[in-house]
Specification:
heterotrimer, A mainly alpha (336), B alpha/beta (240), C mainly alpha (358), A: 336 residues, mainly alpha, ABC transporter involved in vitamin B12 uptake, BtuC, two-stranded antiparallel ribbon, 14 helices, disordered N terminus, C: 358 residues, 2 strands, 73% helix, disordered C terminus
Chain lengths: 336, 240, 358
């Protein structure tokens, strides 16, 4: 087929660049107000790390939504579950965490987030079969069913782990900061950024370079036509749902480590943020949610420094502004 | 020779609306059967019901000796049914190449078949790596049909391929449909343009109010203006 | 035009159930002595109004909003902060209520015009985000709202428990301000409920349902969808605002947990579904069942948990822990969504009503 590829002279796919630059623009605008360069760098690095964790949680949700119009309120429960699963791994491995060996530290961290992803992915399958599938295509009942599922899941978490938060210590190698001159950047934030970038790169590769990925993108746009080409979209969707749940768990585990504790309320807290991010990014767009995650986190950080009282509503302001500019989000997906 | 298609007493409801009210339709194997009728007669619903995108509430649909009426759309497709809907339904965010990759469900695309398709749709080769969403309406239509035939099929369901196309492109499309037919595939084609229908059709079925009201050869209908008038309400200017 | 707008509860079992609940609420101070029972009854009255106003939106207009409790909070904070700032007078109540109603209307208009044009799911998410932001704002602006701690305030003298308007008790119940407060809550909620019943049975209500069933057809018939939906949002918001005001008057306290938290929104959803969506009578059943379960199911579960713990059963004590009552309600909720989409009211409906659908 190489002969055919050569024939491709004309317009390649065009990616609009301006929406992708919004985080940079926000950073440039905020810089003079923040003043000190070191503070600005610290805030920006923290924002990017936070954005990566939010993206990890939100990217699956946007695909789940894009493919089947499922507004999944159960997503928050998987974020919380991931946090608790991390404690199950890290508390017994306290020795590895506390050891001087970076390899053991890293192994403990990797095991914890992988366990969170695997457990959440498996339970995602159960959730999809029991809660979502019976009400496919009926928006209202689906919203209600996933809310019910979220209530049950949250209560089960309380029943299993109790109502109190569980402290969770970072492996030794990731405590403290890298210091460059008078700028301090927490080591764990660098790690979180690396993991988030890896997730983004992996998703981008799968979506663009594999047939499954093509099917997912096609399904987001027109699931009926995917079926008419002979593919079983419900099986594809289960896979996407499991992957989304696994990523929610992975993100939840990372966030719990970042905060040094696991608690069920993390679910509801980040669920709302995930919704905001996928609205800003454009429903069904992984790239859009990547940009939106960084944007939202940066704005929250700058606002937190400049006007702490307003930091928590900065997300909503960002959402309203973006929607006034682009009513279907930064990167709208055709057909949505 | 491909298998023929047969519908017996098919009823389809969409919400509260009773669209198909007992369709009896046959499309003989290896021939091109035109499905004509006024807007709202139920032609698109018939194709969608065959494809499994609407579920028939009553009646039987068979391709050769295999029953289709209780199958999901994906299983109907797996029996070798290709579908080019009225909306074309190309995946805009995917490239031309990626659209065709998805059309070839059973594996990698066959280069010879691709070359054959490019023979009558050269634009697809030119825009191979472009987003399908950036194509013109005619090019999207070509892509939609190309996707439906990128693998050998038993039966092709094509819904109004010439709608909104420039006359020059319609010519290319007619050639293409004739070539496809020459491969022996059974075709059921919904078409508003009577000239196109007369040129490519072997058989013709006319629908009205959710039923098939006429069955015969295309040549006979093309020769009988009074019948056209009665069945389709055609006036001469719609031939242009 | 009858009091019930020609839309009384249908079927004997439902009539009996509704009648029993209403009678119990009407005579609650005399039937169920004790502070807990009276609090439960007052909460049921408030919730009936809140759930009924939500049902106008979700059940009749088919609009899924997660910002309904925000309007409840506006009402509660409006009255509460006015009483806190201006002193315990009826004037303060009136000022607070009017200001709250104005704010609610403005918010409902803004939400309606901004996003009712878009996909319903999009609307749901936007309202969720807005409600969340409002909640955060209320906790953050602690100089005004009292933050997480909320505000306690004095209500007008006639509503205070210490107020005596008769020297001797009535049927054994002291004639205190508490009694007046209860009947204020009861009658305002009842009147507001009847108004909502009137609204959904008016031509306007029928247009709402037509839009819900088939927006394109309704538009083709010449109904302005955005106008009708925005108006429904406003009416529903006003209902919630009044409910919030009643809640503040009864509790003599306003704070995020009692007026704004997302868990109230979830509770309201559970009540509307369990009671029966698309029928205002469902609000009465749903609110009564839920609030009673919230208050008393926990006692039952506590007993079960103790029994399970004594029998040394694994896991069960945790599942029956009184704090886990929502687990069982959540389960009932999901089952109701699957198997009884019309809720208790739908299940009790006479059979001929169901047969018509096919």
């Amino acid at each position: 087929m190489s002969a055919l590829d050569v024939g491709a002279a004309l317009p390649r796919r065009k990616i609009e660049i301006l929406p992708a630059l919004t985080p940079l623009i926000v950073a440039l605008v905020a810089a003079p107000f923040v003043g000190s360069a070191s503070t600005f760098l610290t805030l920006t690095a923290a924002g990017i790390a936070m954005g990566m964790m939010i993206f990890t949680m939100a990217s699956g949700l946007t695909l789940v939504f894009g493919m089947m119009d499922v507004l999944n309120f159960g997503h928050g429960a998987f974020i919380a579950l991931g946090a608790y699963v991390a404690t199950l791994v890290l508390l017994p491995l306290a020795g590895w965490s506390a050891s001087d060996s970076v390899a053991l530290n890293l192994a403990a961290f990797a095991l914890a987030i992988l366990a969170a992803a695997v457990v959440c992915g498996a339970l995602g399958w159960l959730f999809e079969r029991l809660i979502v599938k019976p009400v496919y295509g009926q928006h209202l009942r689906q919203i209600l069913a996933t809310i019910g599922g979220a209530i049950i899941a949250e209560q089960l978490i309380y029943a299993l782990w109790g109502p109190d938060q569980i402290p969770l210590a970072l492996p030794a190698a990731f405590r403290g900061s890298f210091v460059f001159g008078d700028t301090a950047i927490e080591k764990y934030r660098v790690l979180a950024t690396v993991v988030g970038l890896a997730v983004f790169a992996g998703e981008t590769l799968i979506l663009n370079r594999t047939k499954i990925g093509l099917l997912i993108r096609a399904g987001v746009e027109n699931r009926e036509m995917v079926e008419a080409l002979g593919y079983r979209i419900d099986r594809l969707f289960v896979g996407v749902f499991m992957a989304g749940s696994a990523l929610a768990g992975l993100g939840g585990a990372m966030m719990a480590l970042y905060r040094g504790q696991a608690h069920a309320t993390i679910g509801a807290e980040f669920l709302v943020l995930c919704f905001i991010v996928i609205i800003i990014g454009g429903l069904g767009s992984v790239g859009g949610s990547f940009v939106a995650s960084i944007l939202v986190a940066l704005i929250a950080n700058y606002a937190g420094f400049l006007a702490p009282k307003l930091a928590l509503v900065s997300n909503i302001v960002a959402m309203v502004v973006v929607l006034l500019w682009r009513p279907r989000g930064l990167y709208p997906v055709t057909g949505r | 020779m491909s298998a023929g298609l047969a519908l017996e007493g098919v009823h389809t409801h969409i919400g509260r609306y009773h669209i198909l009210q007992g369709v009896d339709l046959d499309a003989p194997g290896g021939l091109t059967t035109m499905l004509l009728g006024r807007n709202g007669a139920g032609k698109t619903t018939t194709l969608r019901t065959i494809m499994g995108l609407w579920r028939a509430s009553k009646g039987r649909i068979a391709l050769g000796d295999r029953a289709l009426h209780s199958l999901a759309a994906s299983d109907v497709a797996r029996l070798g049914v290709g579908y080019a809907p009225e909306t074309m339904a190309v995946f805009s965010d995917l490239t031309v190449k990626e659209n065709l990759i998805l059309g070839a469900r059973q594996g990698p695309m066959d280069d010879r078949r691709l070359a054959w398709i490019f023979g009558f749709f050269p634009a697809l080769r030119k825009f191979w790596l472009s987003r399908a969403g950036s194509l013109s309406g005619g090019q999207k239509q070509m892509l939609s049909i190309a996707r439906a035939i990128v693998e050998p099929r038993e039966l092709l369901l094509i819904d109004e391929p010439t709608k909104g196309l420039a006359p020059a492109i319609v010519g290319a499309l007619i050639d293409c449909l004739k070539e496809i037919k020459a491969t022996g595939v059974t075709i059921l084609l919904v078409e508003q343009n009577f000239r196109v229908a007369a040129e490519v059709g072997d058989e013709v079925r006319v629908m009205d109010n959710g039923r098939v009201v006429h069955r015969g050869s295309m040549r006979d209908l093309a020769a009988d203006q009074r019948l056209q008038m009665r069945l389709l309400g055609l006036s001469l200017d719609s031939h242009q | 035009m009858s009091l019930l707008s020609g839309d009384g509860p249908r079927g004997r079992p439902l009539q009996i159930l509704i009648g029993a609940v209403v009678l119990a609420l009407m005579l609650a101070p005399f039937l169920f002595p004790g502070a807990k029972a009276l609090n439960t009854s007052a909460k049921i009255c408030v919730m009936i109004l809140l759930v009924a106003s939500y049902d106008v939106l979700i059940g009749y207009a088919g609009i899924v909003s997660f910002a309904h409790v925000m309007f409840f909070g506006v009402g509660a904070y409006g009255v509460g902060l006015a009483l806190y700032g201006l002193g315990a007078s009826w004037t303060a109540v009136a000022i607070g209520l009017v200001a709250a109603a104005a704010l609610s209307l403005a918010l409902a208009l803004a939400i309606g015009l901004f996003s009712l044009r878009v996909q319903s799911i999009f609307f749901a998410m936007v309202t969720l985000a807005v409600a969340y932001a409002f909640n955060v704002l209320a906790s953050q602006l602690s100089d005004i709202t009292g933050g997480e701690d909320g505000r306690s305030f004095k209500v007008p003298a006639a509503l205070q428990p210490g107020f005596k308007w008769l020297d001797h008790p009535i049927f054994g119940v002291p004639a205190s301000g508490k009694l007046i407060a209860y009947y204020l809550v009861f009658f305002v909620a009842a009147v507001a409920f009847l108004v909502l019943l009137r609204v959904v049975n008016s031509p306007f209500g029928r247009v709402l349902q037509a839009i819900r069933e088939n927006p394109f057809r309704a538009e083709a018939l010449g109904y302005r969808i955005v106008f009708h939906r925005t108006l429904a949002t406003c009416i529903s918001a006003l209902g919630a605002t009044v409910a919030g005001a009643l809640s503040a008057l009864w509790l003599r306290y306003v704070g995020p947990d009692t007026a704004l938290s997302f868990s109230i929104q979830v509770d309201v959803l559970v009540m509307v579904v369990v009671g029966g969506m698309g029928s205002l009578w469902g609000a009465i059943v749903g609110a009564a069942v839920f609030v009673v379960a919230e208050g008393y199911l926990q006692d039952l579960m506590g007993a079960l948990a103790n029994a399970a713990a004594e029998a040394h059963l694994p896991l069960l004590p945790g599942l029956f822990d009184p704090h886990r009552w929502l687990l069982w309600l959540g389960l009932a909720f999901v089952l109701a969504v699957y198997f009884a989409p019309a809720g208790i009211v739908g299940a009790l409906k006479p059979a001929e009503g169901k047969g018509k659908r096919t």
